[in-house]
Each structure stands twice: as C-alpha cells, then as structure tokens.
Amino acid sequence: MSDMVERTLTALPGLFLQNQLGGPAASRAPFFSRLGGLIRGVTALSSKHEEEKLIQQELSSLKATVSAPTTTLKMMKECMVRLIYCEMLGYDASFGYIHAIKLAQQGNLLEKRVGYLAVSLFLHESHELLLLLVNTVVKDLQSTNLVEVCMALTVVSQIFPREMIPAVLPLIEDKLQHSKEIIRRKAVLALYKFYLIAPNQVQHIHTKFRKALCDRDAGVMAASLHIYLRMIKENPSGYKDLTESFVTILKQVVGGKLPVEFSYHSVPAPWLQIQLLRILGLLGKDDQRTSELMYDVLDESLRRAELNHNVTYAILFECVHTIYSIYPKSELLEKAVKCIGKFVLSPKINLKYLGLKALTYVIQQDPSLALQHQITIIECLDHPDPIIKRETLELLYRITNAQNVIVIVQKMLDYLHQSKEEYIIINLVGKIAELAEKYAPDNVWFIQTMNAVFSVGGDVMHPDILSNFLRLLAEGFDDETEDQQLRVYAVQSYLTLLDMENTFYPQRFLQVMSWVLGEYSYLLDKESPEEVIARLYKLLKSDSISSETKAWLIAAVTKLTPQAHSSHVVEKLIQEFTVSLNTCLRQHAFELKHLHENVELSKSLLQGAQNCEDIVVDASLSFLDGFVAEGLSQGAAPYKPHHQRQEEQLSQGKVLNFEPYGLSFSSSGFTGRQSPAGISLGSDISGNSAETGLKETSSLKLEGVKKLWGKEGYLPKKESGADDKTEMPHVPAEGATMENADHATTRKDQAQGLTQSTEEKEKQLLASSLFVGLEPENTINLLGKADVVSHKFRRKSKFKVAQSDKTPSVHNPASSALDSDVARGDDGCLSTLETRDSELSSESLAELPSVEKLSGVSSPAPSLFADNNMEVFHPPSSSAPSTAASLLEEDPECGHSCAMEVCSNDSVSVSSYKIWKDDCLLMIWSVTSKTGSELTDAKLEIFPVENLKVIEQPGCLLPGMETESSKSFQYGVQMESPSVEGTLSGFVNYQMVKLEFSMNLSLLDFIRPLKISTEDFGKLWLSFANDVKQTIKMSEPRVALTSVLTELQQKLRLHVVDVVGNEGLLACKLLPSTPCVLHCRVHADEVALWFRSSCSVLSDCLSCHCQKVMETS
Amino acid sequence: MMQFMLLFSRQGKLRLQKWYVPLSDKEKKKITRELVQTVLARKPKMCSFLEWRDLKIVYKRYASLYFCCAIEDQDNELITLEIIHRYVELLDKYFGSVCELDIIFNFEKAYFILDEFLLGGEVQETSKKNVLKAIEQADLLQEDAKEAETPRSVLEEIGLT
C-alpha cells in the first residue's frame, strides 16, 4: 500500500504540469494537498502584488490554525511546511517559530522530523526561543530510537545555544562510543560545531578527538578532520606529532585502500584527500623536518591525479597549494609549476581561472613564472568574463615595477571605469593609489592617475588615500624643485578640472582640490588669487556641495585672502556665511572676517603657513600647563582621556540593567546576618550598587531624545549633505584620456578588423611592456632601481617634536583657532581651519599617540613609555643583571617552578623553569654542557606563537650562574589573547647541532591576583557583560567555602576579595591587565561559579581551569 | 566552511536556502537578492566562480535551476562544484530523474537530503549509498508511523478513498 502512496505522490508534479497546460487546474485536481495548492496558486500569479496578497491571506489562516487548540500535530506538521514555504518567499512567519519547537517536542517521528527541520531553518544560534529546544534535544539524545538520536544530533550540529552546551556535552561524548557509525559521525560533527562556537568548552575532550581520528569507519575519521583542520590552523605546533598519521592516512586513500563506496567518479575519497592536503600544508609551513615527512605522499598524489575530471583537478590544485606552503623541495616545485601550466593553458574557463589564481599565489616566490605564461595572461586581460579580467589584474598588481607601472595602472583604470560594485571599486582604487605612490615615473602621470582615483573612488574609497596624498604634496620628497613642480602641476590640473562646465566631482576630491588650491596656488604666476577665490566661491554656492566640503572651501579662501588685492568676493562670502544656519560654517566665516579685518595678524599667520616645513611642534602642549594647574586649583575635574570616559559611561549604562545578581546579593546579605559569624557586607554591596544607580539616574538621560543639534550644527542639514555624497562620481575627461599612457593598447582596441598577425604583434608588444623587468637576470639590478624609485614618492616622516622644557616657538593666544592649525602645520592635510571639523579632529586625536611615541624614542628617559604599558612590552630592567637565584630571594612574592629538563642530547642538556613575576611570566632556559666544553656560541630561539608575546630580556645573561659550560637565556612571556593552554617551542643551536624543545604554558601562568576592594569588585561586576556560569559537583557531601576559596587562591592565584555567608568574591587579572571577577557559592556538594570579564574567552578558559582544579582536589 | 547554499530558478525564484552562518533576515534577503541578480546576469560560457564581497561564490546551472554556494577564501572552488554535483546526484537518485518540480513540491525532502549530506557547512558523508540509506531509514519509519496511526486520513488526503 505504501508503495502505491509513494508512486502517487511522485506522480503529482507531473499531473500538475499537465493541469497547467490543460487549462483550469483547480477542478481537475481536488485531491491536491494544501501545500500543493498554495504553490500552484503562487506559480499561477503574475504580479508581485498578487503574490503578496495571497501569502498574507495564507499566513493569517495559518496563524489561526496553529494557535487553535483543536489543531492536531499532524495538521501542525502540514502547517509548518507551508510556513517554511512562505518564509522562503520572503514573508515573515515568526508567529510559527514557537509551534515548530513544540512540534519537535511533542510529535511522533514523522512530525518531529519536520519540527526539527523548521527550527533549523527558522531560528539562528542566538535566538531566544532556542533555549526551549534544549530539553527536547536532551530527551531525544537519550532515546533508544536511532532515528530520534540522529535528528537531535543533526539539529545540534546546526544550531545550538552556546551557553547550553554543558547540558548536552556529556551525552554527545557518550555517543562517540556508539556502535553505529552514523551516530559517531554526527556526534563528531556536533563537537566540531561546539568547537567553533565555544572552543574552550571542548578543550578537555581532545583525547577523544584522537580516538575519532583512529575510528575504523572512514566517515567518522573524515568528520574528525574538520576539527583538526581548525585546531591546527590555530596552533600548528601543537599537532606536529600527528603529521605521520595524516601522511599515512593520505597514502592509504591515494592508494585506493578505502571501500569503493567512498569513491567519487572513480577517484578515491576526494573530499578526504583535500582535507588532508590542507592539514599537511598547515603543518609543514616553515618547518623543514615536518615537511620532509610529506614529500613522498605529495609526489604520489600529483602522480595519481591524472584523470581528466574536475575532481582530480580539485586535488591537484590543493596539492600545488600545499607544495608551495610547506618547506620547498625543488623537485616538487618543478612538478607543481607544470601543474599550474596545465591549469593556465586549459581551454576550460574554470581551470583557467584557478590557474591564474595559482599564479597570483606563487608569483612573488617566482616572478619568472609570469614570463612563461605571458601570452595567456595578455589574452585573459581582455577576456569577456570580468571575473577572469579581475583575477588577471590582481596578478599584474603583484608583478608591478617601475618599468611596467604605466601600462598596468592603465589596465586597472580601464577596469575600474567599468565596475559598478562598491566592493571592487574600493579594492581597486586602493591598489592603484598604492602603485602610483610607489612607482610613479613622473609628476604629470602621478597627478592624473590620482585624479582618476579620486573621481572614481570618490566617497567610498579608504580615507587614508586622501590624507596620504596631501601629506605627500606637503612634505614632498628630497628634491625641492621636483616638489614645486608637482605642486604647480596639481594646481594647474585642478583649475582646469574646475573650469569644466556641468561636471560633478565627489566631495572628497573637491576637498583635495580646495586644500591644494588654498596652499599652493600662489606658486602659479598666471592666475591671480582673486580668480582662484572666485572659483572657490562658485563652488561654495553650488547645491551639490556638502557642508564638510564647504568648510574646506572657506578655509582655502581664508588662506588666499591675504594674497588677494581686491576683496570683493571675500566680503560677499563673509556676508553670506556669517548668517549661515550651520554653526560650523558660520564660525569659519567669522574667523575669516576677523582675519580679513586684521591684516597684520593674518599676514603673520598665513604667509608662514605656506612654508610649514620648519615649524616646531610642542606635542606635549606644555605651554598649557599653567592653565591646567590654575584650572585644577580652582576645583576643575582632572582630564580623563576619551576611552576612559567611554568606559565609565559604559559601566554606568549597565547599572540600570535588571540583573538578577543584585537580588542574590541582598539575599546573601540576609544569610550573612543570620549566621553568627556573619559580616553584613552583603547589604553593603547592594547599597553601593543602589547608590551608583542613583547617581546615574540623576545625570542627563539622552536615550530616546531626538538629536537635532550636533557638533556641526542642526543635524538634518548634515544628512542632506550626506545625500549629496551619493551622487555618481563623474569621470574627468582628463583622467580618462591619458593619451600618452599606452599607445599599444589604444591601437589594439581599434585593431579589430586587422589581420591575425598584427594582433599577435600587438600582444607581443603589450607583453613586452607588461613583463619588462621580470627576467631573472634582470631582477637583481632592476629591483635595486625600483627601490630607488619607490622611495621617490614615499612620505618622509618629519615630525619635529619639541622637548617639553623648550619654550614653544609658535604660540599666539590672540587667535586660538588658527593657532592650533599652525602648530600642526607639519601634518600637511590638517594645516587649516577645518581642524575643528568634527571628523578631522577625531583624526587628529588618533594621531597623537604616534607623536608621543616618537618623542619617547628621541628622548633618553624611558619613563615616557610608562603610560603606554599596555602597548609597549616593557621588561623590567632592574632584574636583568641579578642572578636567577638571588632574584628569587629578593622577591619572595614571585613564585617559581622547579627546573625541568626540556630536551637533551649526548653533549648538552636544556632545562627550564618559570618565574611568575607580577608583570609577566619569566621563562629561564639554561643550557648546560655535559662534557664541560665551552658553550659560548650556543644560541636559543623561540618560535613565534600566535597568542603569546615573547620578548627576549635585555641583558639576558645571568653572570652568577654563567660558567663556560652553561649558559642561560631569559624571556618574558605574555598571553595576548586568552586560551586554556599555549605551547612555546624553540630550539637551541649549538655547534651546528639543533635541539628542539617545546613546553606547555597554562593560562594560569599568566593569571595574577587582582587586589581590589569589595566596592571596586561591585563596579567591575556591573561593568562586564560576558557571563560564564558553571556548577561543579564535588566528591565530598558537604563542601566548606573556605577550603574552596583557599584552593582557588593557591592553585589559580585568585585574590579573595570578600566572603559573605556561603558566597565568596574573587578577582584576578590576565597579564598585563585584563580583569576577571568571579562569584562562588557553595551549596551542599555543589560549587556554583559565576565568571565575568571584559573578555568572554578569558571567562571560559578560567572556568575550564577551575573545573580541573576542583575536580582533581 | 560553506557559508550558505541557495537554489533558485532561471526566473530568480528561490527554491531552497540553507544558511550555515548566523545572519539577520534582512541581511539574508539582501544577499539573496544581490546574488541571484549577479548570477543570472552571467553568460553561460563564463566561469563558475565569482568573487563577491569577501566570499567566493561557486554556482552551476542544472536545467532551469541554479545551485549556488558561498565558501570562504581558503576553500577549494572545484571541490565545491563537485559538492553541488553530488547533491544533484543524490536528488536524482532519490526522486528518480529529478526535475525542478520535484524540488518545488517536495522541498522538505530536499532539505532532509541536504542535511544528511552537508552538516554545519561541512561535508558529512561522501558515500552516496550511506546518505540514501540514512534517508530511506527515516522515510521508512515515517511510512510505518503513517500506516500504524492514521492510514485512512493519508488516503483521504490524497483523494484515493
């Protein structure tokens, strides 16, 4: 019977087709399911509007059905399918989400399956309703029915709330031992999912991953490779020992040892092969010894993949990638090059594209490869498929040098003019600007190229391009006359552009123009300042100009005013803009007015600005010290940096959250008072938080208040300005027709009717212009040349920072507005009035630290770095000269580990120990010779590790311990991003012998107690949002809080802030200064830990360690 | 890891969507609209790969239906093309020479098959036999459940009584 049903069902679509063709379908298909009816209805409609009407109707009837109590689960299942369909059409069916969860919970197998499917399609990981599914999943995971378990595992591998992982983790771990391979496979994939969303929650089951890797079923093993690929990507050094296993597996796969069902088009398990090749590539990177293990199998993979099928090409492509990633072997490289050739020369477009990609990848290692394939590259450059074209340009970008830059940039510009997608434009414009700056052959070309960049890239491009360009103009390069020529040419070119009628330029381009005209139009003899001012004024009056650009324009006029003889236009401008509704513009206008009236002042200020090179900047603003001191003495609040204010605001914002924690505190206060030994601190804390809460409510509340006025004036105005920006940038004719740029290409475009041979010649010509300078024998001297050229347009850093004890030379309190501008005249792009424009001022703020750093370098006092402790790793210089032993005696607070031998051979042994210093982990390695021979030439190197920061301590020798036969090395280590463990490996080099070692560092090595008061604890607690909660079951029936706290204090180096009843507060920090606070509560045989930190990963990792410590105790 | 998979018709109608990364509905709609437009605008002889935003798109047309996958930068384009092909093979085997209408009317089945083949954006099972076995098992149980519980209503529903 079921057979018949099935046949009828599959025949339905066919029937439907006939109905469609045959006329009135509805009457002939009465048995159609409701879904079928809906789909048929939608397909029959012609307009989007009708569809909307029909679906809305459908949705409202569905809404009524799903919420009716009489609806059976079977009907519900049918409704779910229809809801999925409506959502796919783009309509909101969120009312049904809860019913999908209910269906997964209550339905029989058939309904459950649809319920789970609907849940996985409707919801996302952080959807709140997902919590309701957890119970169902737990129940199904424990079911005896395999299909139910499979469904639960499938849904877990797709979406599962991160914080509920502990609820299912043990169940899923159990499934790794299940007798059915499908269950084991899905369990591995579920763990993979967990690893992706919360890596630290599965840290402890790494051994089980290894078991999965050795599973007798190839499917389970393949699934475990997903996890290994991720883990190895993050920490390749930790899995080097598995290299041989991966190689063996790959050998077996390539050799056809797997069951035939894993083959795909008679290629053995291609997915598995590719995964393994990727893993090997990661493992062998920069590691000769590991790479050597895999040379054979890579060679075999290349050899075996000979079938002319897509899937073998996929394997070959991955092989080539791996061969180029690992430590090179010339024999393999040769074969890989041949392989790339196969791709590039293939008539299949997909393979050609990948060939270009591979070339792009390897071209930097071997530029001569481009020469081999130059004709193909040329052909691809004019390929009708834009994707191929773009990839070719990417390739050319990598081989650009001073000799071919003109041709390549021209090709890129051609492509740029055709592209519409913003992402491509931003990317390409950045590359062109970079090449132009590096390799520009002359001024004219440079300015014209940049004109094209600005007019096309306009308002979407990266703002750095603009400031780099202006800085380059202002600072110039070494040749002063060249500099002037560049500026003159820029001015000329902009004046021509502005004279063109009916052309619109992007705002950013206009800003560049106005700055350059303001600064440098005096260099031009032909043009009088009045004429330039008139042009700027015309722009100012245009409707398409944003207010930000207007500010730039007025600034330019201000700079030109003292040079002008007649001031008719300036006066008109002042008159119009002093009544402007935009406060920013109005202020600029008033400043202009002020300067215009006071000729002396404006001359002294603005004439000087043209010659801005020699202005000395007092970056410490020491001339304001007196003012600050006066302010402070009058009771002003001390200055807080922007980030500090922001942090405080954030922490204050949190106070009004209805966190359940406040409640638990007050209850703990209760128990505290009841117990005889209780200290009533609990109420104290809650009182504190209430107090801070009160403070916040009394301050101005701005949320929900419509922002009408901002820094730049009335805000809606600004929005209209932003609208202006979206106008299509117009390409200036000048930039587009760079006639002398490339004759070969322009001729080529016209040469369509010409014979084949001329076309060939054109190609040869283009090739010679593109690939010039790539021949190997040429490379060396050309690179040298290119380097000289590349310096030509590179910025010089010319910060001249005054020592704070010098009296500042530029300081005129009369006009503070211009003062700041002049003071930063050296900054080039910021040298005008618009410094106070909000965007620019934020830019200038961002620049301050770099100035500080520079001043720090130039001055001998290292104390300047003290403020920057967070960024600059600062090893303690005092401890360096003392011996390790005395260091330990002097500093009893620093714990240290016992020395441990990390590696040895016949003649030397290396031992190591850790010293847990307050500001870092100090690692000491000592190399001792067993034979007593000299060790002076021994060297120790540490491999870089991603999340650890290792700095060799200056003066690393420990004289006291130093003998001829032993030598010590000392490194300071910090953890940059929290993780449960890290591996530090390196080698000792001694008389040509290389001795490798590796050591495990735990997060705990970098945790230090954070000594804070209970009040501070409360503040920190409220300011952190990342919660991690964990309950640990203890073996003893009754746990004493004190023993738990001592445990945590001793083994994890946490600081016990306070004890309230059966609750404890602890705090610690991850070096250098990431705090983590934790709350610990004991109840019968359970310890509930609640972590909060500014860094969620830290909480996770720490909770993992806590668990380990408590469970072993 | 695969980011998402879309199936759409030549007219740009979405037939199936599977997202392996959490995105808002608005974002999903925007991506779908832009991608469908871009892919449909491409000519038949063009390359099956696209660089789109920071993702790589791999697409292939089977009859009137486009299969379109988004993968990450380091993923292999060619093998993704084979993933699409294997999925089509699976559909074909399951439905028996599959056509677009099969997928339109039985999209939930198409989802079930996809979930057995790809899980969380990674290939779960590469053996065609094993995937179909898993689907058939679940289907069989469904059939049993159907017959045991409400044999009549099923027949009623399809109009055979």
From TrEMBL, chain A:
It is found in: Endomembrane system. Residues 736-760, 798-844 are annotated as: Disordered. Residues 1008-1111 form the AP-4 complex subunit epsilon-1 C-terminal domain. Pfam families: Adaptin_N, AP4E_app_platf. Residues 804-818 have a biased composition (Polar residues). Residues 740-750 have a biased composition (Basic and acidic residues). It is a peripheral membrane protein. Keywords: Golgi apparatus, Membrane, Protein transport, Transport. Adaptor protein complex 4 (AP-4) is a heterotetramer composed of two large adaptins, a medium adaptin and a small adaptin. Belongs to the adaptor complexes large subunit family. Component of the adaptor protein complex 4 (AP-4). Adaptor protein complexes are vesicle coat components involved both in vesicle formation and cargo selection. They control the vesicular transport of proteins in different trafficking pathways. AP-4 forms a non clathrin-associated coat on vesicles departing the trans-Golgi network (TGN) and may be involved in the targeting of proteins from the trans-Golgi network (TGN) to the endosomal-lysosomal system. PANTHER family: ADAPTIN, ALPHA/GAMMA/EPSILON (PTHR22780). This is AP-4 complex subunit epsilon. It comes from Mesocricetus auratus (Golden hamster). The lineage of its organism: Eukaryota, Metazoa, Chordata, Craniata, Vertebrata.
Automatic annotation (TrEMBL), chain B:
One of its GO terms (cellular component) is clathrin-coated pit. Keywords: Coated pit, Cytoplasmic vesicle, Golgi apparatus, Membrane, Protein transport, Transport. InterPro entries: AP1_sigma (IPR044733), AP_complex_ssu (IPR016635), AP_mu_sigma_su (IPR022775), Clathrin_sm-chain_CS (IPR000804), Longin-like_dom_sf (IPR011012). It comes from the Eukaryota. CDD domains: AP1_sigma. The keyword Membrane applies. Adaptor protein complex 1 (AP-1) is a heterotetramer composed of two large adaptins (gamma-type subunit AP1G1 and beta-type subunit AP1B1), a medium adaptin (mu-type subunit AP1M1 or AP1M2) and a small adaptin (sigma-type subunit AP1S1 or AP1S2 or AP1S3). Binds to MUC1. Belongs to the adaptor complexes small subunit family. This is AP complex subunit sigma. It comes from Mesocricetus auratus (Golden hamster). The lineage of its organism: Eukaryota, Metazoa, Chordata, Craniata, Vertebrata.
